[in-house]
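PROTOCOL LOG
Step 1. Enter all chains and additional molecules of the complex.
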Amino acid sequence: MSFILSNSIGDPIASYIGEDQDRLTEDRVRILTEQLGLDQPLHIQYFRYLQRLWPLETPELTNIGTWYLRAPDLGVSSSFRPPAPVIDVIVDRFPATAELAIFSMIFAVVIGIPLGIVSAIRKDQLPDQVSRITALSGVSMPIFWLGLMLQVLIFNSNQIFEDLGLGFKMPYHERYNINKFYQKEDNILGAVVGLLNLLPFLDLGPIPTTGFYLIDNLLYLPAGVPPLESIVLSLELFVDALVHIFPPAFCLAWVQMALITRMTRMAMIETMRQDFILLAKSKGLTERVIIYRHALKNAIIPTLTIAGLSLAGLLTGTVLTETVFDWPGIGRWAVNAVSNLDISAIQGFVMITALIYVLSNLLVDILYAYVDPRIRYD
Amino acid sequence: MTTGYELDMLEDDVPSEIFSFRESLKTRGKELRHSISLLRKSPLFLFGFGTILALVIIALLAPYITPYGPREFLIDPLAGEILKQEPPGAIDTREYLLWTDFSDVSAQFGLADGLLVRTWLVDLNNDTKVDFLIGTSDSRLLFYQNVGTGAEATEWELNTSFTFPEIPENVTHVSPTTGDMNRDNVTDIMIGGNDGFLYRTINRGTPSNANWTDFSLVRNETGAVLEFPGQAHPTLVNFDRDGNNKTDLVVGSTDNKLYVYINEASIIRHEKWELVLLEEAPLDIYDDPLDFEGLGTGSIKADFLHINPTESWDMIVIFDSGHYYYYTSIGLKSSPSFLEMDKDNLYVTFTFPTLEEVPGMDFQWYDFNHDNISDLFVFYSEGNVRFAEQYKERDGRPLIFGTDALGGDIFSRCIWALQLDLILAIWVVLWALVVGTIVGSIAGYYGGWIDNLMMRITDVFFAFPGLILAMAIAAALGKNMFNLSIALIAVWWAGYARISRGQVLSEKNKLYVEAARAVGLSNTRIIFRHVLPNSLYPLLVAATLDLGGVVLTAAGLSFIGFGANPGDAELGRMIADGREYFIQAPWLVFFPGLVIFLIVLAFNLIGDGLRDVMDPKIRR
Amino acid sequence: MIESQDTVLELRDIRVHFFTYDGVVKALDGITFDVFKGESLGLVGETGCGKSVTVRSIMRLIEDPGKIVNGTIMYRDKDILQMDEEDVRKLRGKKIAMIFQDPMTFLNPLITVGEQVAEVILLHQGLPGLTEAEQEKVKKDKMQEILKEEVVKVFELVRLPDAASLYTRYPHELSGGMRQRVMIAMAIASNPDVMIADEATTALDVTIQAQILKLLQNLKDDLNTTLIFVTHNLGIIAEMCDRVAIFYGGQVVEVAPTKVIFKEPIHPYTKGLLKAIPLLHAPKETLDSIPGVVPNLVNPPGGCRFNPRCYLAEKNPEIKESHCIVTKPDLLEYGSNHLVACHVRAKEQNK
Ligand SMILES: Nc1ncnc2c1ncn2[C@@H]1O[C@H](COP(=O)(O)OP(=O)(O)OP(=O)(O)O)[C@@H](O)[C@H]1O
Ligand SMILES: [Mg+2]
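Step 2. Run joint prediction.
Step 3. Record the structure below.
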């Protein structure tokens, strides 16, 4: 699939040369064509692609585990300086995107669903109009603009605090990265990984961090300091990570919240007109029970779909937000790759996108089954 | 029970379903009237509708509202001629970038025995007035504070309370430059010394209440000290190669070479926000230092500015011997390709008032009067300064949204951009609608393998985030507005195909279609005359919402550099252009963004109102 | 047959309008009748004549865009239409319970049937045999257990097979008849004064229908409740009901004890309705039907809504001109408990 997608993006040669037509000489085209193997028929190209992805050499029997555990070779991302293997870049960058996406999604769901319910119940009344405006502003806001304006605000708030003599400063531009001094023995996670590595068939290698700043910073408990100090430090780091994730997450969450609110509202309105709600009313149940016990469960199903899809969307690159906030996720990398016409990187990105979509659909399906008994058994 | 109704129908020989089609049209008409009456009562819908109406009128009347074109003029720096003016006939006001003559000495610095090595213009104490940071040949760093008043304050006094850390021992000739090296929005200082090393100090305090760290050697990523053959003149500049707003470093030295270090540090992946210098830049243009062999003697000072109405940096290079050269850049901002230019391509002359080449002189660019056009300061080694103002001649209209980095009127640019974006949105949605509807209705109507094939194709488009897909297509086609529109159409048609397929599927089994078929109407006729009109409403709602979506996506793509070219009046592009200065000049970003917001909000309000009224599931 | 004339419900001049985009649907146009304690009252009429709307207004369950614009519904000396929302809510399910037509769409698909019944019990009775203070103390799982026992009892009451295991089943796992029984269980769970069955058996096949009817009848007798039974099927009425109210186009045209209706109907519509019943013993070539169509309730015929289809009015053009198309006929008494709304009959009576 990712092969088709990356091929359908356009003539790779044309895209390689792209804007600077001056460089386009017969020679260059030929060399490039050979390099990329584009002179081969399509099915051979495809085969080559697969081969590179997961070479078909017969793994030795004892090695079978490592063979499967081996990361697929996705080529080298040349838009990086220095060029880095695509798989490394993804492993390095994806957690940042995922952290941002998940964090903002939690935000969006926690705010969006109640807002949607309120506006469905008070349809066409003030709460509905207010939530409609909030939601619509969310989807209408250019997210990069929102991000920039937020930064102006944060920056100026420093000035304001300073002028007031409070000496308080939003520590926005300083962020500690603990990856550098994160040692295996230092922290809980590292210790766990270390223990797992002791098992004979498993070699997780040095994976001391999750790449999620919030988690890493919280789990970081430096050894060799008094326990209290070490906890305080880890909390400090955690707060720091929180301060940094908040502005971009806020921007993203607003947009996601808008979608979720609207969806919840629609679904709620529809559900509230169902027959079984009438029955619930005729049973004398209070409005609250009707809404939260009877209607919400039914209304949540389409909302789940939307949430699942937008989570997938977020995970595959919050391109604009990452650009504006310098977030080192895969979205920015994708932009970089596309503008530098870095084919390997694009292919790798397409792969992971497809993977994420499949996974998030699976997740939504599982959630469905959890909510809806009708599809539980088939 | 047989009702009379059915009896009537049976008496008629004409297939009764034909009537039911007409009937369905009739009820549609009735619904429509009712819908309109409901919409009239919805304040948010009316607000959206009014806004769009107003915006469209403004866009249509753009040439009458604003005297300026969407693009500022492209001026040939050699001849001072206008190369390009858009749109033809829309403007009758002439605008030029003009220079005043160089003023006489307006400040004299007491330098004692030393000579001036380099002056750096910066608003170090954040009082919006430009100050001089002067490095001398007797190991001193002087801070001349601007004590003038008004917008064009030009009175400088030595500020002794502003003390810098001790200059490193071996350094006698101090060449300062400033930049924010730890990303705390407080300006820090780097100096180059005659010992060939670079040192830097970080302001850990605030601009007005500084707290400098001691000077420390500048190292690269691997920890190695940066070393140059002789006097080093560092210049901190933001090339913005990867759009990350980080400070890059250019160092000129006595070997007639200019060393360019691009900051690849990522803002949150490093322990502190310090410059990361790449000793060995692995690829093409940064491989070799730029060689200016034979153009002058002594070491090189470089300064960067925007002088052409393009996004890219231009460069002025001055030798200690007093020779100066102006390089204009033809590349993008992110990869300034003047760095690739050979000596034949340089513009030795430049249209500012000619200056004598005096050994030891120094140029600095600074927009001292805040008109967003850089002005030029010349310093001489004995300590006197002259400056020339560069300005844009206008017809005196008020610039209500302010001006951009090139002195363009943001208000008129916004209006032109509004027009462009609206046209783009309508164009994209119309084509997407046409393509999508045709594909969708054919798939839905014929079913079978055609349906399967077409829906698999739409699946491919759906499996992908729209922005990324559009980005890829736009990049592959080449970056311009037309290709952007093609990319957007390619992304958008699939949605309409789905909707119209669903509609056709649900509509095609209704009686009137079978009747039409029985009467022997052709398939195309059935689809276009009978089925489609009945599936129009969902498409209409989707299209209205998508008009907003297209504006948003197009702006987003232009923002990250796909689509509109630098300098184009396109809303996203304008924000991207203003991003470099947005902290100091938020209006560069604010107004274009506001216009996008208004357009999209208005379309969304309309679409939302329409949906509420037309969706049978939620209307009353 | 119940002789006592205690009324449980008194409906007076109920008018319900639906404000739709086609115009105002005047669904009920002055409905008036009484429901006696302990009886079972049948409501009959063609489709769309307002039976469901009537019974829903009794529980004040008319939803947007509908509105009860006029009338009083007295329940034990209190006007339901004037009560505040909280009081009405307490009435619903506890004093007046409703059984709906379609057991599939009226049961919440995502909640187990046991819980759906338990809900009613907990709400209206609390935990059986315990005071409120004691209930507070009961632990959550304990409470579930007690409730479950209670629900199983009710399930057994409505003859649901294997009642214990049903508790945790979802509606889609039950057959139509079982679902209907669950709905009935819900209705009787809190021992209501009045049970309203709105076409409770229409969706079921004939044998199940018979079982359910029998069940309803038995339950009514055992629990000594009042039953309002809405149906199209006059045969069921004959079997189940003590009295019948005949609806036409949002008006009540005739109310009488069942026997009277079948023996000596007075209103021309009732007569037409009875003629349309297929009779086993007197086979005919075709069924008689009432000519004309059910009136459009947006622009209903003036006066008596039946007048365009009425053969009596046809025969008495002057009365039609002067009364039928002008004023709505009042319900007049034509014998004990026999009320009829017809101008022509009234004129004939007066002569
Ligand atoms: N939500 C609604 N919106 C508009 N009109 C309605 C609504 N509900 C009921 N009506 C109208 O009220 C009238 C009476 O409807 P009602 O459901 O009471 O009929 P019914 O006698 O129960 O018919 P059936 O035997 O088919 O159940 C109908 O003409 C219908 O069009
Ligand atoms: Mg009904």
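Step 4. Note key features.
The beta strands of chain A are 76-77, 84-85.
The radius of gyration of chain A is 25 Å.
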